[in-house]
Amino acid sequence: MRKENFMEKQRNLIRLSILLLDSLNELKKAKLRQTQSVMEDFSIRCSDATKNSHLFHKAIEKGWLTGADNIRSRVSRNLNDFSYYLQRFKELVNADETALPKLSEIYAELIQIEQEFGEIKFDPNEKAISVTTETITLEDISFGPFEIKLFIDQINKLYSDAPYRIIALEPNPAGSDDSITHPHVSNEKLCEGDGHVAIRSAIEQGRFCDFFTMAVNILQTYNPDSPYISLDDWEGVSCYDCGCTVSDDGCYYCEYCERDYCPECSTCCQKCDTTICLGCAYECPSCNEPVCQGCTAKCKDCEETFCKDCLTEEGLCQNCQEQRKEDSDEEQHEVAEKPKADAAVQSDSMGETIVHA
Amino acid sequence: MRILYVNNDGAGFADYVNVTEGTTVEQFFTIKMEGREPSDYLIRVNRQPVPKDYVLQEGDRVTITPTKIEGARLVIA
Questions:
Q1: Is B46 part of the contact surface with chain A (CB cutoff 8 Å)?
Q2: Which of A101, A104, A252, A317 is surrounded by the fewest CB atoms within 10 Å?
Q3: CA gap B33, B25 in Å, rounded
Q4: Long-range contacts from A245-252, C-beta under 8 angstroms, 24+ separation
Q5: Could you tell me if B35 lies within 8 Å of chain A, comparing CB atoms?
Q6: A50 in a structural domain
Q7: Considering only CA atoms, which of A288, A321, A280 is closest in space to residue A306?
Q8: CATH code at A133?
Q9: Is the Cβ of B10 closer than 8 Å to some Cβ of chain A?
């Protein structure tokens, strides 16, 4: 039974080796297609130069000197492009040819991966091989173990995209961004930094164990000069307004919009001391103090919003209060000056008395 | 004699090189990685860890991989 299991395992490894070798073949084809594309671009430029040469010859023969000058100007402008395409073509054609590894070498790589990392997992649906790291800890912050998953069908896109993902199995993401599960991993993509070229070479040459080893070593190394989020800010939260990272202790929670803010983007109501963000704060046009919505009211006359302290008992702002007072004074003044037109009309016989004869 | 030398440091290197017969792994490292500490690297010969006084043989495969590789954050221009 044990022997059968062992044989089954060897068969699986051989099948996996064949898949990997096929993917490296596809990668080589992709690279050669790229060379072909550059070669075609260069050929087109050569054809253009030949056409211009014929036209130039004709123009001179026919005495069309202005035409000849125009063609010469066009050729001069195109010379820069021509140099660029020639250089690109030279680089690709002269690049070192990567020899494909043998099937036995890829098989040996898989055996070595098992020895270095324990089990190799193969997902037949995703056609991916993966290894799991130990828990990664950097400066006392634990990020849990990671799965490094290499997608076999994407190896041929090595030059345009990374064919692997770094999956956090027990994530401890940055407080301000869930997608950052490690200082150098964002959205499951590893930013390889110093390891970029060596990782590409390793995959291209079929040195898969070297690839996994380097990926693990990058996860185990902290580069304080270029992380997505530094370890100092790892436990912090992101200010909802300006986006800066603030520590848990240093952030302020707005009671109204229920978001977290940094000290610069928040304030407190000068009337009730409630913490609010600058967006939810209202500046009273009378006293210029920031207040929360709960401490504001509208003036009954002008309907502008003020803090409650700046409104009178009648619910008026200072201006409207004064305006009302002015209006009232004016009214009284007008009443005083007006003729008594409405005094009671005297009867005709007022002041008269009956005198008996 | 010829051995396959794979260096995963920096831009990487993978090719056959000539070494003098009797060269140990430690000596080879000192020549190729002058000024570097072996403890900062994972050294494998024929895919296996070996003692530092292992004497290299014809056709051996030596791989040197740095244990500390600094990642970065992607900056989109």
A1: no
A2: A104
A3: 12
A4: A245/A174, A245/A175, A245/A176, A248/A175, A252/A277
A5: no
A6: yes
A7: A288
A8: 3.10.110
A9: yes
Q: Are residues A125 and A222 in the same domain?
A: yes
Task: Decide if the complex's ipTM is over 0.90.
Answer: yes
Separation in Å, CA A286 to CA A268, A282, A289, A298, A326: 18, 12, 8, 12, 19
The Cα A271–Cα A282 span in angstroms is: 12
- Written as six digits, the tokens of B45 are 């010969």
Contact flag A213-B14 (C-beta cutoff 8 Å) = no
Confidence (pLDDT) at A342: 54
pLDDT value at position A190?
Answer: 95
Average per-residue pLDDT for chain A = 88
Asked if B73 lies within 8 A of A217 by C-beta distance, the reply is no
**Cβ neighbourhood burial of A38 (10 Å; 0-12, 13-18, 19+):** middle
Q: Which residues pair with A11 in a beta bridge?
A: none
- Per DSSP, the three-state class of A236 is coil
| Nearest by CB: B8 against A112, A214, A219 | A214
Q: What is the DSSP string of A292-345?
A: -GGGEEE-TTT--EEEGGGS-TTS--HHHHHHHHHHHHHHHHHHHHS--TTSPP
Looking at residue B41, what is its pLDDT?
Answer: 95
pLDDT tens, position by position, A166-200: 999 999 999 888 899 999 999 999 999 999 999 99
* Residue A220 near chain B (CB below 8 Å): yes
Closest CA to A192 of A174, A217, A168, A160: A217
**Domains parsed from chain B with CATH numbers:** 2-66 (3.10.20.30)
pLDDT in tens, B15-61: 899 999 999 999 999 999 999 999 999 999 999 999 999 999 999 99
Among A30-39, A131-140, B24-33, the least confident range: A30-39
| pLDDT value of residue A336 | 77
What's the pTM value of the predicted model, to 2 decimals?
A: 0.72
Q: Which of A205, A207, A221 sits opposite B70 (nearest CB)?
A: A221
Query: Identity (one letter) of the amino acid at A148?
Result: I
> Is A324 among the domain residues?
no
Question: Three-class SS of residue B75?
Answer: coil
Q: Does the CB of A195 have a partner CB in chain B at under 8 Å? A: yes
